[in-house]
Every structure is written in C-alpha cells, then in structure tokens.
C-alpha cells in the first residue's frame, strides 16, 4: 500500500498559490500597518540615480512597488514583480503602474525572469512562504544566477520566538472592523508555523484563510547564501540601520556576489 507524501506546506491541499488566493481581497486592508516602510526606503537610500533593473519576489498586490516608485519618482528603473497567485497579481495589475513595471506569474523558488538584475528583494517574511528548505535553497540559487556582478539581494524577515510547540486560538479585530478567529500552531523543531483566520465579515459568510510559514534563522540564511555563491554584506534590525542583536525580532539582510 502506497503512503501519500506529506504536503510540503504542512497543510493538506495547500499549494504555492493558496496564501495569495486566500488573502488577496483583504491584504491591503489588513496589512496596511506592517510598519515596514523602512525596508524599501533603506534600499533606495543607497542607490544611484541611474536606471536600474529591479526584481521583487512575491510582489503580491504591488504594495512595495508603490513605495519604490514614491522613493524614486524620477528614475527610469525597469521593475519586474513575480508572484505565484493570480488573485494577487490581478489586484496589482489594476494599480495603473507605468509601463516600466512588469508583473509575472511565477514561483520564485523554481524560476525567475531573465536577468541580470541590479537589485532583487523580497519583502516582509515573504521568503518564508516557500514550503521547505529545498525551496528556499533553490530560491537563493536562482537569485545568485540572476544578479549582475555588482547586484544586491535584500531580505526582510522576522525571527519567531519560542522553544516549545504550542497552539494559540484568539479573536482579533482588524483595522476595517472585521472580527476574525485566529488559529496558529508553532513547531519549533521543524521551524514551521501554520494557521488560519476564520473571517466573519459583516457583508459575507464565514471565510477561512489558511497560511503556512517555514522560517529560517539568519545563520541558516547565511549558509544558503554561501552555498549559492553569495556573501553577507550587512544585517540590520530594521531599514534605519539599527544594530542587529540577539534580541532583535526582525532583520533586514543584504547579500551580494563576491567581488
């Protein structure tokens, strides 16, 4: 008798597009207060005025594209954003971005648009939406192959805390007033957090929105970078160059190819 292979995301029926498809319609409303504007701002502060080729992994609704264009309004950057969810991309495509912005459907652990790119970045915890270690290592390999010789790769990620497995159920009120029941299970041994939001909107029936995170420590990310042929340039606790310490709950990390 054959045994079914466990779902790599840790949730039966979950796929690369599940998160985006489940959250696209409410993403900008629910997550408008992530307080991560310093990520794109910090990247742009170090860039020359000359046109750049830029790639965002997990572009979603285009939230960080809007920030990029606001910080570089007079640039002629060629910006490509990829995402594995058609639902997310449909919202991004409705933003009326300039012709210099391209949006593509792709799983960034499997393939990337043709490079080379001056800047590749992945926003707040989006890297950890990939299902497992193999996918994250594959992503690093594709990034290294897609950077120009002086290109830079930026990651914005959180550092989950807790040494023991636990399941938490709580009720939350979102910014738009919607009430949700939040379920999450942390498996620190396998470095995975799975969960779901049971969303009872006033204007709709109950909707279940599942999510899965396979997180890596900064040290593990550095090992992936080295394996892919990249080196660590800097790591800060935020986009304002705050020193990263063992107590930091977030990090912004920059990698490059060896000079």
UniProtKB/TrEMBL annotation:
Q: What Gene3D superfamilies does the database record attribute to this sequence?
A: Vaccinia Virus protein VP39 (3.40.50.150)
Q: Can you give the residue ranges of the Methyltransferase domain?
A: 54-151
Enumerate the Pfam families for this protein. Answer: Methyltransf_25
This protein's name: Unannotated protein
The organism encoding this protein is freshwater metagenome
């Amino acid at each position: 008798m054959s045994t079914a292979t466990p779902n790599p995301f840790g949730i039966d029926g979950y796929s690369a597009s599940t998160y985006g498809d489940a959250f696209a319609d409410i993403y900008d409303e629910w997550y408008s207060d992530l307080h991560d504007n310093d990520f794109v701002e910090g990247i742009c502060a170090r860039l020359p005025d000359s046109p750049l080729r830029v790639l965002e992994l997990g572009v979603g609704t285009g939230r960080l594209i809007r920030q990029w264009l606001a910080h570089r309004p007079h640039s002629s950057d060629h910006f490509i954003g990829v995402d594995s969810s058609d639902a997310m991309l449909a919202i991004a495509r409705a933003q009326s971005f300039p012709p210099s912005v391209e949006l593509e459907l792709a799983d960034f652990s499997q393939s990337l648009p043709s490079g080379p790119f001056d800047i590749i970045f992945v926003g707040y915890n989006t890297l950890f939406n990939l299902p497992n270690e193999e996918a994250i290592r594959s992503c690093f390999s594709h990034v290294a192959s897609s950077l120009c010789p002086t290109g830079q790769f930026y990651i914005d990620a959180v550092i989950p805390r807790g040494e023991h497995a636990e399941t938490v159920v709580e009720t939350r009120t979102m910014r738009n007033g919607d009430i949700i029941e939040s379920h999450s299970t942390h498996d620190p041994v396998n470095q995975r957090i799975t969960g779901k939001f049971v969303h009872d909107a006033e204007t709709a029936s109950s909707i279940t929105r599942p999510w899965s995170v396979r997180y890596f420590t900064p040290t593990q990310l550095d090992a992936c970078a080295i394996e892919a042929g990249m080196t660590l340039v800097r790591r800060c606790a935020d986009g304002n160059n705050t020193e990263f310490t063992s107590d930091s709950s977030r990090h912004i990390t920059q990698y490059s190819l060896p000079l």
